[in-house]
Design goal:
Blueprint lengths: L3 E2 L1 E8 L1 H13 L8 H4 L3 E4 L6 H11 L13 E7 L2 H6 L4 E7 L9 E5 L9 H18 L4 E7 L6 E6 L2 E8 L11 E5 L5 E5 L11 E9 L1 H6 L6 H15 L4 E2 L12 H46 L11 H17 L12 H22 L1 H59 L12 H25 L1
Parallel strand pairs: 1-13
Antiparallel strand pairs: 2-4, 3-7, 4-8, 5-6, 7-8, 9-12, 10-11
Length: 475
């Protein structure tokens, strides 16, 4: 029996425009969670930023570690990870919980009270809970590199205790395309029309004799989210990370349930949970089916052996005894058993049989004949096949629903990202405009401090309001 479910989630697509809000959530404890400021002081900080905000911390670390990166709006600058479990797991470790006055609105716990940590002092946090997060932090350090971790904290001021980590997806080598060059070593280019209908100049990629693009390996420090996760297993990277963490953390003495080992599940939706439950039921049915097949095979083997004995007795010219009985006695025994199978109305207790051993053999034969009939009819197997087929159809339908939902989500994400991108660019332009008015030159995106420009904007607005009031007063 497990003490709780393992929760290890990753977010891998944080762009420049996301850094400010994430930093504010960490520092001000404002966002989408249910925050209890009375418990905020009990949060544990494993690593904190050294700059004014998370945005500046990212670019400071990139420069400090001499990490190469593409300074684009589409670049994934940062990854995030969350490690936790349900209240029942932390209760097993000794942490007390209390009712929050709120109730679950969906899922298995619908209408049940939401429990939150009951922490009034440092003493209310058990050593075992702290050790769990210590062990979890060690796992993350080993996987992403301690120097690449920007911030790591345990939050006790939300509904469920959890560790939140943000890190740079850095690798020590990358594969880059090789381009065709002329005799002087200069790149050979070609004029092409891009998707916007604009003619541009591009270098020609070099290919081998089979037509495959040639890559070269370059070593160093690179911010490359795609190749970072490819090095962890590509499409199976999240599942492999889940498996690896489960083995690691349970070897430390905990008891967390991973789910379907080797599966692709991460943070599951309601539909995915339903599908997972169907898979588990399907596994149980399959196991029962295998057990029945094994039993039926043994019974069929016994029945065939009995049939061979029957044939040997009938057709053998010898007068050997079988089991201490003459041939005629055994033939009568088998004929009698066949009569029982046909009539199904014989009361064995009323038969006058001299030998108890012969009676025992008749009962065994009748049992084998009946069970062998069930085997031939395949009633049990047919029923289980129907169940399995039905569950496969349900799973197929659920997968179709998930595909449709994922397509809708991808579409909405794309729209939201477009809006966020436009807003981000608009904010940058405003900040640059303010900077130019103040006499600043060559303002780059990475040099913009939103806090500073927000303060400048507030001062400009306040000055104008004051002037308006003075003018009104003069009138």
């Amino acid at each position: 029996m497990y003490d709780g479910n393992q929760v290890l989630r990753f977010e891998t697509q944080y762009k420049k425009k996301d850094l400010y809000n994430i930093g504010k959530e960490l520092s001000d404890r404002k966002g989408t969670g249910n925050y209890d400021k009375e418990r905020t002081k009990f949060n544990i900080k494993y690593k904190t930023i050294t700059e004014r905000n998370l945005y500046q911390e990212v670019f400071t670390q990139l420069k400090k570690q001499n990490i190469e990166y593409n300074d684009k709006a589409t670049t994934n600058f940062m990854n995030g990870a969350v490690i936790t479990s349900g209240p029942e797991f932390f209760q097993k470790l000794g942490l007390n919980f209390k009712e929050s006055g709120r109730f679950y609105e969906k899922g298995k716990k619908t209408n049940k009270p939401i429990l939150v940590p009951n922490i009034l002092s440092e003493k209310d946090i058990p050593i075992k809970v702290k050790q769990f997060f210590d062990d979890s932090y060690e796992f993350i350090k080993n996987e992403v590199g301690e120097k690449n971790i920007l911030t790591a904290e345990v939050h006790f001021d939300e509904d469920t205790p959890h560790m939140q980590i943000y890190f740079l997806p850095v690798i020590d080598k990358v594969l880059k395309k090789v381009y065709e060059t002329d005799s002087n070593g200069n790149s050979i280019t070609v004029r092409v029309t891009n998707k916007n209908g604009v003619e541009v100049t591009r270098p020609i990629t070099k290919k081998d004799k089979n037509g495959k693009i040639i890559y070269k390996e370059i070593k160093g420090n690179f911010l490359n989210n795609d190749q970072f996760w490819k090095s962890k297993g590509g499409k199976l990277s999240y599942a492999k990370m889940q498996d690896k963490f489960n083995i690691y953390i349970n070897d430390k003495g905990y008891s967390l349930f991973r789910g379907r080992i080797g599966g692709h599940e991460q943070h599951k939706t309601k539909i995915e949970n339903q599908i997972n439950e169907l898979y588990e039921k399907l596994d149980e049915v399959s196991m029962d089916l295998e057990k029945n097949k094994e039993l039926n095979n043994k019974e069929l083997e016994l029945t065939n052996n009995l049939k061979n004995i029957d044939n040997n007795i009938i057709y053998s010219p010898t007068k050997k005894k079988l089991g201490g009985y003459k041939e005629d006695d055994v033939i009568k025994l088998i004929d009698y058993a066949k009569d029982i199978d046909k009539s199904n109305k014989v009361n064995i207790k009323n038969l006058s049989i001299k030998s108890n051993e012969v009676l025992s053999k008749n009962i065994q034969i009748e049992k084998l004949v009946n069970e062998n009939t069930k085997l031939k009819s395949g009633e049990a197997l047919v029923e289980k096949d129907k169940i399995i087929a039905n569950q496969k159809n349900i799973i197929k339908e659920k997968n179709n629903i998930i595909d449709n939902l994922e397509n809708q989500i991808d579409y909405l994400k794309s729209k939201v990202n477009d809006i966020k991108e436009e807003f981000f660019e608009f904010c940058n332009k405003l900040c640059k405009a303010i900077g130019y008015l103040l006499g600043r030159k060559k303002i780059k995106d990475r040099d913009i401090d939103y806090d500073e420009y927000r303060d400048i904007a507030d001062n400009i607005i306040n000055d104008n309001r004051k002037k308006e009031k003075d003018n009104d007063f003069c009138r």
